Amino acid sequence: QVQLVESGGGLVQAGGSLRLSCAASGIIRSINIMGWYRQTPGAERELVALITSGGNTTYSDSVRGRFAISRDNAKNTVYLQMNSLKPGDTAVYYCNLRQDVNGYWGQGTQVTVSS
Question: Is 73's pLDDT higher than 90?
Answer without folding.
Answer: yes
